[in-house]
Structure formats: structure tokens, C-alpha cells
Amino acid sequence: MVKDDLPQAEIGIFGGSGFYDLFENNFQVVNIDTRWGHPSDTYSIGTIGGRSVAFLPRHGHEHSFAPGEVNYRANLWGMRALGVKQIIGPCSVGSLCLDIHPGDFVVCDQYVDRTKGRAETFFTHDLGKGVQHLSNAEPYCKEMRKVAVASCKKLGIPVHDGGTVVTIQGPRFSTRAESEWYAKMGWSCVNMTQYPEAYLARELGLHYCNVSLVTDYDAGLGKYAAVTGEQVLKVFNENLDSLKKLIKVMVPALPHAEDMACSCSQTYGLFE
Ligand SMILES: [Zn+2]
Hints:
Strands 1, 2, 3, 4, 5, 6, 7, 8, 9, 10 and 11 form an 11-stranded mixed β-sheet that branches.
């Protein structure tokens, strides 16, 4: 699966809404085709703090793909082909909890899947690997989460260590009734892309760390904490600035994959 002619990178980063470019200069653009189809766009390979990094905007550079249209399997397969072992998956979220404010970052440790019809496994009949039912009780990398939280604290970014993101199908936002339901369940925030992205990383044996950027309060909290569209846009842009600073601190601080004590990589190599 790893092609000799492809540049290699240790760490992969997916860009979400508004985050379409990572490197300003000294990067290589790579076009990858996969057995699962085309990734959302070309990958950019560069270096941050001495670590090699591959970047891909998950919706494409022009934000062409709706959350339900993103080819998550191709995006992850391409990362794997580049040699990536650790992935940072930032995403914008709405808060479901009055303790989680716009401008806060939540490094989630759980997700709830409310999507439908997405291609969500590499264990398909035609791949000939048989069916495997992987443990997903701990869907995110705990080692990377520690580094993400410590890096946020270092930068003074308000951060929540752990949380549950519910992933909805989109592209529509939640109704107030849906949002109130999610909030009553005790979930932290709502998003449209964490599933199956995080899970597919697990199937490939890649370490995956979420960073949820809180843009606003979701509909169910609206009557308690209304925000204007102008405020949302301001927070959204500030979050992107903070995220870029976080990446510069977090990437060099990550332990090398082979030195990590978590169990994320149990299936690494299965799809060589
Ligand atoms: Zn891990």
C-alpha cells in the first residue's frame, strides 16, 4: 500500500470548514488515487517543528463536498499511503452544554454516530480481509489527547479534556428538539464529520485525535445563550487562528508513534 514514489509523512492533519491550507511555503503537493476513489483534494506535505506532516482539507480546497459526500475512506487511505501514523482531526462544533463556550476547544474522547448511509468500513467483502468487529469503546487516541490538552493550556486556549461529540448527517443543522435531546443525553458538542473519519483511522491502526472548535451554542441552548451571526463568524475566525497556533505547538510535542503506550495501532499493517 505504501508506494515508493510517494513522499512520506509521520503526522496527518485534516482541515475542516474554513481551514483549507496549512503550509505557506516549502511544501509538496501530492495527488493520490485510491481503490476507494479520489480523496477530497491533493495532499500538501511539509514540515512543522522538524516533523513531517501531510495536510488534506476534508471538504476539498473549494469546500466542494458536503459532510455526507466526503469520501472518508479515500481520505484516510491516502494518509496511510503517505506513511502517516498519527492524525489530528480538528472540526467546528456547536456546544450542547452551557459550560462549553464559543471559543473553547474540546478534545473529545467519545463520539455518538447519528449519520446515515456513509461508507464506514474497509472490511468489505471484495477486500478479502474477512469481517472484523473492532473494539471501539475508546475511539480516540488517549496519548495524543494528552498532548493536545497540554498544548492548548500552554497557549492559553480554554480547553476541555474529554467530551462527547455527536455527529449528525447534515448538511442541515439540528432542529431545536433534536438539539435539546442531545443536550439532555449529556453530550458535549455536535458536528457533521467526526464519523466515520475517526473510526476509519482506527481500522487502519492510526492514532486519531479530535480537536473540536466551539463556534456557537447549538439550537437547543438558543433560548439560554443566543448569539448573533456576526459573533459566530468572529469566533469562527478566532478559532482558526488558535488552531494554527495549536498545531505549531502540538505537532513537535507529539511522541513518535512507536513510543506511544495506547492500543490504537493494533490493526496497523492489516491492509498493506
Ligand atoms: Zn493512540
